[in-house]
Design brief:
- By secondary structure, the protein is mostly beta strands.
- The strands form 6 sheets. It has a 4-stranded antiparallel sheet with strand order 1-24-23-22, with no helix packed on it. A 4-stranded antiparallel sheet has the order 2-3-4-5, with no helix packed on it. Strands 6-7-8-9 form a 4-stranded antiparallel sheet, with no helix packed on it.
- The longest helix has 5 residues.
- The relative contact order is 0.17.
């Protein structure tokens, strides 16, 4: 693995932009950044903390998670909230997200703060939400203790979803209207906690093993194919990029590295290409 950038607290939400490069966030320190092909890092969004998921939007901006799901970009000067917190339901924020081939947004909600030790001990489960093209949203699955990575199978028929607290990668059958069937256990991560994930064109699921120092690759049937070791233990997410989508970007946090700013981005060439993640086509309010 080659180290491309360092100096961050906890990197999350990597997404590949063919025009600009790798887009990513720093959860505790705030901001969204772009690592371009020359290795230069530029700030894309200032200040905003807690961004665990990012998607490109058709209008050229970004959909970001955190205290809400919002649009930031050239289509409007102001932040546009696409899906807000819900005090009645106890939703305190949102974490990882992805898009389907129609441009709908899938995102998991948090009803307990993962940064609060008391709430970590007794977490309240959240939901899986879908934001439709008209901007409306639905809760389509429940009982998710700590929502994390999301990704679709190549045919769009299955949605993979990491539940870090339950220590599983779940899988849902996806219906034509965007809703999903009951969750089943797809895989469990040995030596680590399932975090962000990506899917390759052969249907394999590449899962970041947080605190396990690796990316674990699962076959479409859930069997472990291989384990790609990373120099840092807190592997938080993965993303395919490059012109042929065979550059695997591995992002990490500083935990376990002995330095609060040790969060880094690594890159390794792999034998199979990743699936491109479509831009969000959701109408902005």
């Amino acid at each position: 693995m080659d180290k491309l950038a360092s100096g961050y607290g906890l990197i999350e939400g990597p997404v590949w932009d063919r025009r600009r490069g790798l887009i990513f966030s720093d959860v505790p320190n705030g901001g969204v950044y772009c690592l371009d092909r020359s290795g230069r890092v530029e700030t894309v969004v200032e200040h905003r903390r807690g961004i665990g998921g990012i998607a490109l939007h058709k209008d050229g901006g970004l959909i970001v998670s955190g205290r809400n799901v919002a649009y930031k970009g050239p289509a409007t000067r102001e932040t546009v909230v696409v899906l807000d917190r819900d005090e009645q339901l106890g939703i305190v924020g949102f974490n990882d997200l992805t898009t389907d081939t129609r441009g709908r947004i899938y995102v998991g909600s948090l009803c307990s703060s993962p940064l609060d030790p008391a709430q970590r001990r007794s977490p309240k489960p959240g939901w899986l939400h879908v934001i439709d093209l008209d901007g409306s949203s639905r809760r389509i699955a429940d009982d998710i203790l700590l929502t994390n990575g999301l990704g679709f199978s190549p045919d769009g028929a299955r949605l993979y979803h990491s539940d870090s607290r339950a220590n599983i990668v779940g899988v849902y059958d996806v219906r034509p209207d965007g809703s999903v069937g009951p969750r089943r256990t797809f895989a469990r991560v040995e030596e680590g906690i399932p975090d962000g994930l990506a899917v390759s064109e052969d249907g394999a699921v590449w899962v970041a093993a947080a605190r396990g120092g690796a990316v674990v690759v699962f076959e479409p049937d859930g069997r472990e194919r291989e384990r790609i070791r990373c120099p840092l233990p807190m592997v938080t997410s993965v993303c395919f990029g490059g012109d042929d989508l065979r550059d695997l970007y591995v992002v990490t946090g500083a935990e376990g590295a002995g330095n609060p700013d040790a969060g880094s981005i690594f890159q390794v060439r792999v034998a199979v290409a990743g699936l491109p993640v479509p831009p969000a086509l959701v109408k902005l309010p």
